Amino acid sequence: xxxxxxxxxxxxxxxxxxxxxxxxxxxxxxxxxxxxxxxxxxxxxxxxxxxxxxxxxxxxxxxxxxxxxxxxxxxxxxxxxxxxxxxxxxxxxxxxxxxxxxxxxxxxxxxxxxxxxxxxxxxxxxxxxxxxxxxxxxxxxxxxxxxxxxxxxxxxxxxxxxxxxxxxxxxxxxxxxxxxxxxxxxxxxxxxxxxxxxxxxxxxxxxxxxxxxxxxxxxxxxxxxxxxxxxxxxxxxxxxxxxxxxxxxxxxxxxxxxxxxxxxxxxxxxxxxxxxxxxxxxxxxxxxxxxxxxxxxxxxxxxxxxxxxxxxxxxxxxxxxxxxxxxxxxxxxxxxxxxxxxxxxxxxxxxxxxxxxxxxxxxxxxxxxxxxxxxxxxxxxxxxxxxxxxxxxxxxxxxxxxxxxxxxxxxxxxxxxxxxxxxxxxxxxxxxxxxxxxxxxxxxxxxxxxxxxxxxxxxxxxxxxxxxxxxxxxxxxxxxxxxxxxxxxxxxxxxxxxxxxxxxxxxxxxxxxxxxxxxxxxxxxxxxxxxxxxxxxxxxxxxxxxxxxxxxxxxxxxxxxxxxxxxxxxxxxxxxxxxxxxxxxxxxxxxxxxxxxxxxxxxxxxxxxxxxxxxxxxxxxxxxxxxxxxxxxxxxxxxxxxxxxxxxxxxxxxxxxxxxxxxxxxxxxxxxxxxxxxxxxxxxxxxxxxxxxxxxxxxxxxxxxxxxxxxxxxxxxxxxxxxxxxxxxxxxxxxxxxxxxxxxxxx
Length: 747
Ligand code: GLN
Ligand code: ZN
Fold this sequence. Notes:
single chain; alpha/beta; TIM Barrel; 6-stranded parallel sheet; globular; binds zinc ion; Cobalamin-indep_Met_synthase; zinc; repeat
């Protein structure tokens, strides 16, 4: 084996899996039909990889929702409240992911968290007192066998026990030692059964090793694997990604793994570690092709690195699973000039094969690649570059300070206590999406399209007034996506047609590509935000995406720093903020949903390599507004407990964040750290179609008020509502405003 990949995009070339799974959700497909469909898809992917010439082909990297959830289900790690319901296996699986509300019961979804430093999200497993770990699932075995029946010998992939323990939640009374012992036994059984089926290799993913690993954790890791690998009749590949394993390297190389997978792209110290020595009896899986970005690999550079480390037992692989890049460039409309610079998942397979050939002496591919990197491909904008250079310390500071603004805003707005609002978007119904698509394809005129959007805005404004929300939104019907919509109005951006990447479950994102220096071409949101504000006496929030999120949800350039790219975007959004203000928009929300995304995985790097520039970049966006313009921000999909001071330094007036799935755990920290910004912790989960009852919301608000002073609290859902249907949205929000009404009366 000379080449391998860690995982492949499971959603399909045209997001087939998403559409099929959603049909199943709508009861338009049975579970058996969905299974059959996915079987065909897996076959297609395995054959595609095989035909590319890549030899190390993974299996069980497929998932209906999430591979961490799959692993929990494989191991019977299922909360008791769920096992008590009489649901089928697949109903249980999807109930963990999405919640269940029906004749068989009412249960919330498990929390979902960001998968390391990516925009992929995993479902958090939970170990309870009653959890009995045992290998009750069979997906990993079935998929291995399925490929084998097709004549393809794959390498099954599984999330490793160490990472699983790191990512899971433990109920208070759980004995961790027990869990570790049971897990080890279960993984041993998995190894045994795979080897019985004839598998040669097993890939165990342990990305948690790239974080700061303490001595105690390392000991746990070592103990688990000593036991696991003792007389294992299969070659175990320990696969790491998203960084280097500097804390664990020495331990890892001494354990009897057959292969070790290291990340050469994000692992800044990987080469240095290897220079300390790498055992000759192991295979090095060198992750040299970037699994996260979409640029072509620079073959010469890669060859130079590989020459440096000079390893005999070498397999070339990707830096992480290809799950994080789109499927293929083949269906894109870019000119060849542009396209030749991109490599999506399918193209990366060819890169691996090319690189292996080059190492074996082939020259052709190397020459073509060298030519590609010879000229400067990025579009420069001197004006922007000068503006960045001219930025001074005061450009990052809003005046007057928070407390003074608070008083001025109290007078200016006179909101009731517990002001209610939403996060921005309302359901993107079929009709909304279809109309936008028709407009994009020039099938309807701008006039007809504008009328449609205006009508949507009017209807929803009226409805928001009726249920008594305090700060309204226009609903974001004109937007496909919170980043692409902005990118389309900024120079320096390129858009793929089909470059979807899985975000969570059946949801995908289509990150735009930063192709040059970024600048605002024209007003972006002013038209619809000011239109909406002109329709009502109530305040309508303007809605923007912040610079850090725009950057983090784009495929970034590799020739300038992330900081410089972000500052360019920040200046563009600053222009937009000031333009909104000028046009009568008095409350402006600047979403930073993905602020945490590129937070270094090692805590020691947080402030020196990320927050030191990303937080100021956010401040740059709003530093020039008037004291009585209220700036909101919004965050979701991740934990914030550990970066609370940084969030306060964003210096927004109000922040709303996702909280309901994590049981409001963050509130204690806000209190402890004297968080100054007013807060709207989400009072219900919007990722699930479940409708929270009035009393349930009242209870949640009660919990919030027990921790946060009344005058600081805003009431809102967890996030935008674009992925929800209209019935559950209106029912949930009606319950939310009703809950607040009752609380106001009771106070
Ligand atoms: N304003 C956006 C919306 O409501 C925020 C989305 C997000 O935070 N992911 O859709
Ligand atoms: Zn959100």
